[in-house]
Amino acid sequence: MSRRAQKLASPNVLSFRYACDLGIPDANLSVSSRFPSLVGTPSCAAKGTTFAYFAQACRDGDARWRPLWGALEAERVDPMSPKRWAFSSETYAVAARRDAWSEALARLSLKCEETVSEDVAGTLTVRHFAGSFTAARLAAPPQIILTMPPQETVTRWLALSLEGDMHLARGDQRSKLAPNDVVFGDATEFTPLVIHTNSQLFVLALPETALRTRMLDSFSPRDARLSPKAVGTRVLSGFLRTLSETLEDMQEEMARPLESTLLELLAQMLTGTADTTPDSQSGSTLRQGTARTLHRLRGAIEQRLGDPALTIADVAAAERTSVRYVQKLFERSGESFLHFLRARRLERAREDLTDPVHSHLSISDICFRWGFNDAAHFSRAFHDAYGVSPRNFRRAATAEMADRMLQYANRGWPEAPSLLRWRKALIEEPVAITPSGLHQDPASAATIREEDRLCGRASARPRHHHLRATETTVHWGYFSRDIPPVLEIESGDLVTIETLSQHACDDYDRMVRGDSGAEAVFHWTPERKAVDRRGAGPMDATVCGRGAGEGFGVHICTGPIAVRGARPSDLLELQIVDIKPRLSANSAYRDKAFGSNAATWWGLQYGELASGPRPREVITIYEVEGADDWSSAKAIYSYPWVPQRDPFGVVHHLMDYPGVPVDRGAIQPTYGVLANVRIPARPHFGVMAVAPREPGLIDSVPPGYFGGNIDNWRAGKGTRLYLPVNVPGALFSVGDPHLSQGDGEVSGTAIECSLTGVFRLVLHKRQDLASSILADVTYPLIETPDAWVVHGFSYSNYLTELGEAAQSDIYKKSSLDLAMRDAFRKTRRFLMTAKGLSEDEAISLMSAAVDFGITQVADGNWGVHALIRKALFQDRSESSLVPGPRTQG
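-> structure tokens emitted (889 positions)
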């Protein structure tokens, strides 16, 4: 077993991972104490059994623990439960909308009490932030909404009216809400909200404890309508509106400072909701002037929380008042100076323990940073306040943050500044890629300089090469200009290239077993992993803990292939001569081919599921039909993804790392799915790329100017793809084989099926294209017998446009609007340069006859393509698609 595998599979790591997954801050807790209902389980006879012991037993393969494992999985608190979700009534049939709407509201402790019409459903966009608050944007037709008491914590709500006509009903009184009005209340005594017209509302739910330490006294109003004329209300209203508009895009790291600002502002505003505030203890009143004085005192304390020598006398002196008066102010607010000081110090320490910005600080550093003199005293006080030690609290918070990065950073690098600096350092270091053996004829194997080999003169005689998919001829999940070529060819040569689907392990028996090449690539045991790096992330898996490369890129790419003579600015033409499915080598499935479609966590459907369980990932296995033409596919069975433990001991709750072997004994297949449905085959390669010019490792998922994961099914047999050359030799790679795919690829994947393709690679020198239709092509362009297909992306060159955070931001900032605009610009340019149209002519033709479509919304850098039919132009002689190979010159 490798040292990294030993580290990932160590009992301490396993026990900690599983404990965190179960929401357990300490792996030394007993199983029965966390799950009393499991005490009767045969494997849980000993009540003192700890999670550390349990993890060790699982690692040792003790079969007696398998029933308990299954019971725990059934009862576990899923750390990947959606922290953001959305609801739209359009998901449901009209007859089912009322129930679906009620179910969605119930998830927010709300309920629809009364309606005006049968169709009551609206839309919801919800975010649960790690700090303490939940934000929801609600749009609804006329109805009455009430709250249900939350089950776990006392909750306060804050609401902003965005638009529409609504009012709060306080007994016989009606308080009309105009746009930008802000109201505050207690979820246990919620005033009914009556919606008269189609309206929009933004609501925040805040735990009572988060607000209590910031209030000027122990009392806060149960509900209040903040004065719309007050300056603070206008500031708060603008703050909430901006938060509503950026709800989908806000990153987790931003939530903490925003929460702190919001609570401070709200506490200040609630002080001014009445002339006097009743004292909860004595029935006396804390008048406005007195409350303001108390607020100033607390502000002075906040500024000096880190001073261990701070005393009440210091605060009194700063405010030029007596110690006795300060004591009385705190007493009238229901607390003491020392209690407030300790509570605020603990709260600030708690925030630092969960903030990634302070992850480099030790617990002792944080303790002393906020004025505690003794680490042991701090630990006891923290445990008394929060019910857990600082160490275990930080570990649990770190695990939660890792889960959130896993779910929302998609397949790119997390955005934390420290990780970006880490990635920058990785880029600036030499790329650690072991050169594979070159697959070339002996005659071309002479030792020559790299520049001469890649940029030398082409031979006049085309040859046919065969490049097999083996562990030495593939790179998994990334592109790089520094990967040594595994094959060198001349322009015009034919190459038969084998490709493997990264989803073949979804059914190992059908798609891997008995296939020596596939078995070599997918080989993974506790002792050895054949292709270790899978993705552009760090090899030590210290970002998300998934595995080497972290799955920041997932595609198995065969290559790269160097084309002699290719230089930057040249154009590489890929003629796709033939495509065949890779037949199963398992004797039980002889002469059959199979593929897999996964509805994944990065698919469009993941937050839009209309039925339970939510969320879920589902894999559907297909068989290719038609022994001669392989013309269609039929579904065999499907199964929901369940947590899978890889051979190194890492548990994958989602499909977050490619090539994880699926335990057939853990899944529950459903047969007979998609009965009487046949899907026409559209075999193509989702990934066809030349090496990018940028340094370092590039995630294989987002496409770009270099091609890559374009995912357009039109690039099939008999078509051509043109890609700009960016590095000497071009370095062409191909992968992500698809049997069929629809425009959009909405579930996250196509029918992923290993294929073998025959390509002719033709190099066009840029100076030789001056008078041709390809003269200005510097972007991926597909040519079919009948059309040109121009590709637009959200960011044409995201690696440059988005800067050092590009491989993170591309998953957060893409949109179809941007992709459509890029496709429009490139199509206009193509029509003007290739066909000689004026700008006005090109725009008119695009609007009247060019078909724009969504290529994919699954690949980070979303795609829109434009299909330009050749029949539009009467002079067909300018078509670049002519029979036979074309070579340079």
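The chain is about 30% helix and 25% strand.
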